Amino acid sequence: MSADNRRTQARFACVECGFEENADLAGAINILRAGHARCACEVSDAEVSPAAGTHRSDSGAVKCLA
Fold this sequence. Notes:
This is Transposase. By secondary structure, the chain is α+β, with helices and mostly antiparallel strands.
């Protein structure tokens, strides 16, 4: 995650696309997506990383869906 995306503890603001949200809510959404992806893989017997669904780039930064 780019440090520039989190200038304050409470706010996430993507410097790449301009998406802004409360940091806790953005984190909760990522956790929910990862859980949904994991459950879907367990149901389908697919093998995927437990972090699937978090939309992370190669650099580790959260990618916005906007």
